[in-house]
Amino acid sequence: MKVVAFSINPVFPDLITGGASKHLYHITRALGKAGHQVQLLCAQGGQDSAGFEWAENVHVSPTLPFHLPFPQPYAISGADLGLIVERVSAALDGADRFYIHDGEFLVPDVYKEIPTVTSFRDNIYPESVLGTFVGKPDEVICVSKYSTDVVKYSAGRYFPGLLDRLHHVNNGIDFEMFKPVETARLAKALGVDPQRDTILLHPHRPEPGKGLPETIQVVDQLVNRHGLRNVKVLIPEWIDSMVSSGESAFYQEMTQLMKDLGVSDRFVFTPWMPQSQMPALYSLGYATLSLGNFVEAFGNVAYESLACGTHSIVAKVGVHRTNMPDDLIGKVNYGDIDAAVEQLLAYLTGEGPNPADVLEYIKTQMDFQHQVTSYREIIINCKKREPLQFIPPQLSEHQPFALAPWCDIDGKRIFHDFRGTYEEDRVLTDMLRKSALVSQAEAAALGIPDQQWQQWLDKTWLVPVELA
């Protein structure tokens, strides 16, 4: 079978640029290993657009002139978009299946005759969000329960046929790779000493939302309030061809914040590491910090770290609220630096979950083989369906609503993942504590004006639900 795959991001022979490209490699490799011929179309990563073999039966064609660096890949001319459509259309001629990685190919007429599978791998970038509304896939894969619910309660409200096509397949972790390993060579290369230094990890892309300012503030407290002078934080430098002006400015802001707080010497900038070195990096750290408000669809870093025996502390944003039980991973409210420091100090004194329990859970819930097998079967067994139809919902005053999956209640406050902020609302939080479902009629019976109800809907705190 001939399978054409699409990635809006560039793909490199020897570098993994994030969770999406990592899983794309394993998915296409599994298809190729099963004997299918895979052509991967992706963005040009530079002037050289020469193709290469990524795995057995997997050929990469980096010929699509999307705008780089990310974001705004569609910030291109009509001429270049026409060239992209031409090249994708030509590749699909004679193809048996089309696989869109991250839902970001936004010209659905090009694949209207080909059985098509889309995997939505984030819930924040405009191209992915728009793709959930304008795409016409035959099957849809989401990488976490959280991500599935986001799609269900956003695009799914207007395209009810989408719900029958949704598959929840957790991202998997390759436990043959991600496990505790020897770190002496990497420690020497990076100039750190695990016997002397308390090594913390911030292995994220250098962009706002990934938690770097929060990590800097944590280090400020550890060093200047708690006297931990041996703290070292490892931060990767981004790939040159993918550094945007915004990311460059963000880097400058962060280095200035380090200077202002007097902790610059606590941070070690490292090269962007190939996938083969990541287990050693995780094993080298004492804890991995993921404290930003970026709405991850899965958040690989936190769980790969746990697989390597290193603690993780995450902000309760998006998927991190529900990916693991609270007693197996450190969770703090977004922006609560004191709580993050307290959690880290507890780990440093030997408190924390049983490592065997942590490993058992992630091996059960984040099984790598289950992921690649599920993707392969969904792609190969995909059949052409009728295009999704837009059907606006008809809601009455008795329609039950629930707290949106992108919201969380903390006391009297509601946190909205996509706004990245807390807002106090005592009335609604009290209502939702008494009942998980509320309606406009019930609110009116409690004396809540229609205007206030509409404000809750306008803030997208509530979503309509179907009763079983």
SSE diagram, text form:
Blueprint lengths: L1 E6 L11 H15 L3 E7 L8 E4 L2 E7 L13 H15 L4 E5 L14 E5 L5 H9 L4 E4 L2 H8 L13 E3 L15 H7 L7 E4 L10 H13 L6 E6 L8 H17 L5 E4 L7 H7 L2 E4 L9 H8 L3 E5 L14 E3 L4 H12 L6 H11 L2 H13 L20 E3 L3 E4 L2 E4 L4 E4 L1 H9 L5 H6 L4 H9 L3 E3 L4
Parallel strand pairs: 1-2, 1-5, 2-4, 5-6, 6-7, 7-8, 9-10, 9-12, 10-11, 12-13, 13-14
Antiparallel strand pairs: 3-4, 15-19, 16-17, 17-18
- CATH class group of the largest domain: Alpha Beta
- What proportion strand? 15-25%
Which superfamily, in CATH terms, is the homologous superfamily of the largest domain?
Glycogen Phosphorylase B
Number of domains: 3
Which second-level CATH architecture of the largest domain applies? Answer: 3-Layer(aba) Sandwich
Helix percent band? 25-40%
| Computed CA radius of gyration, to the nearest angstrom | 23 Å
CATH topology of the largest domain: Rossmann fold
Strand order of the largest sheet: 3-4-2-1-5-6-7-8
For the secondary structure, the number of strands is: 19
The residue-averaged pLDDT reads 93
Tell the overall outline: globular
Structural class: alpha/beta
**Uncertain runs:** 239-243
Q: What is the distance, rounded to the nearest whole angstrom, between the alpha carbons of the first and last residues?
A: 39 Å
Number of helices: 15
The biggest beta sheet reads: 8 strands, mixed
Detailed description of the structure:
There is one protein chain. With 468 residues, the protein is of the alpha/beta class. The chain has three domains: 2-172 and 369-380, Glycogen Phosphorylase B (Rossmann fold, 3-Layer(aba) Sandwich); 184-366, Glycogen Phosphorylase B (Rossmann fold); 401-463, no CATH class. It contains 15 helices and 19 strands. The strands form four sheets. Strands 3-4-2-1-5-6-7-8 form an eight-stranded mixed β-sheet, sandwiched between helices. The chain has a six-stranded parallel β-sheet with strand order 11-10-9-12-13-14, with helices on both faces. Strand 9, helix 6 and strand 10 (231-236) form a beta-alpha-beta unit. Helix 1 crosses helix 12, helix 6 (212-224) runs parallel beside helix 7 and helix 6 crosses helix 10. The longest helix has 17 residues, at 245-261.
